[in-house]
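Please discuss these two lines.
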Amino acid sequence: MPGVSSTWTGNSLQVPALALSAFAVLAGSAAAQDGCAEATGVPAHHMLPANSDTVHWGYFSKGVEPAVFANSGDLITIETLTHHANDDAERMIAGDPGAESVFAWDADGKGVDRRGAGPTDASALGRGSGEGFGVHILTGPVFVCGAEPGDVLEVRILDLRPRPSANPDFAGRTFGSNAAAWWGFHYNDLIEEPAQREVITIYELDATGGLNWAKAAYSYVWTPQTDPYGVVHETIDYPGVPVDHSTVEKKEGVLEGVRVPIRPHFGTMGVAPVEADFVDSIPPGYFGGNIDNWRIGRGGTMYYPVAVEGALLSAGDPHAAQGDSELAGTAIETSMTGVIQVVLHKASDLEGTIVEGLDFPLLETEDEWVVHGFSYANYLEELGEAAQSDIYSKSSIDAAMRDAFRKMRSFLMTAKGLTEDEAVSLMSVGTDFGVTQVVDGNWGVHGVVQKSMFAD
C-alpha cells in the first residue's frame, strides 16, 4: 500500500528516517478498505495515525474494528498519544490536529466519548462514559492476517521518537506529564502537608533527539476540576479532564539541575484478550497490556500469545522515562511515534523455539530475555465475574514474584533445555528479578536473564 518505502535485504530491514508530521488518514487506504491483502513476500509499510477514528480509550476489546490490516513481516508506523496531555494542553495538544480530535470536549460532546471499560451511561460513579475504568489511549488495533488462538505474535520495536509540540511557541520541544497520584504507592505515606495531595510535574524534552535527557519545567498541585459536562473531579479520577490552569498554582524551579535520562518505551502494548468484551486497560495480563517496563523500547522485541483471530494488537501509554516500580503512579507520560514490525509464528511451528508453550508476554533485547510475572497470571480467568474490580484489592509483590519465578523456570526449561534443578540454580546465581510496577492493579515483577550465559 502507499506509504513510507522500505527495503529488505536478507535479515536486515532498512527503515528510513521517521517522519513526525501528520500522516494520511487510513480510511482511504486499500488495506483498511479491503481487509487482508494477499502477501507478496515484500513487507508493506502501513501508516497508522492517532486521531479520534483510530484510537480506543481505556480498554482492550476483541470487538473493536481494526484500524489497519497487516501481513506477517509488515511494518507499521504508529502514532501514540498520552492520556495526560490535558495536564498542559497548551504544550501537548494545541495546534496538533490528531491530538485535538481525540481530546475535543465541550458541552455538546467529546471527540472520543467512551473512556474506560465501564458503562457508557456513567451509571456506576457518574464520572463519564466508560467511567475511567481504564485510562490509556490505545492506537489500533492492528489485525494481523492469519493470526489464530494458539499462535504467537512477535512485535519488533524498530524506532520510537517523541511527538513534537505543535504549538509554535514551543518549537523543537516535547513535553510530558508525571502525576504523583492517588493510586501511587506513596500516597498514604506522605510526610509533608497536605498529607494527601496529587502533584503534576511537567517535563520538557528535546524533540530533535539531540539531548538524551529530560528536565522538569514546573509543577502544580491538582485542584478540583470541572469538566465541560459540569462534573467536578476532586481527584484525577477520569482521563482527559481539561485542567484549568487559572485554578492551579505553578511552582517553578522544581528539580533544578536534575537531568532525567530518557528511556522511550511503550507503557501499554498488547493483543486483545478473549475473556471479556471490554477489558480495563490498567491491569496487565497474559495478553500484555499495561506492563510498564521501560525496557519495551527501541530495539526490543515482544512476544504475545494470541487469544483471538487477528491478534488485534494495540499500543499506547508512551513514556519518555520511567523507573522500575513506577512508584508514584505514572512515568513521564509523553506522546510518541514508533515503527514496529509484526511477525506471526504459527502454533504448528513453535516446537523447539524460545516461544514454545508461551502463555505470557516475553521481551527479548539484544542482550537479555525478560519474563513478566503478575500477581495473577490471568486475573480475568482466576478471579471470576468480578475480576476487573477485585484485581485492585488482591495484588501483592509476593504473588507477582512467585509468578515471575514460575515463568522463568518454564522459559529456562523449555527454551534452554535445562532441568528444573538447573533452572532453579541459575535463577539464584545469574538471574535478576525486579519490581516492574506496583500501581497497575495487577502488580508486576520481571525476571532478566543474560543471553551471554549460554555459550550457544
Remarks:
- The first strand starts at residue 7 and ends at 9.
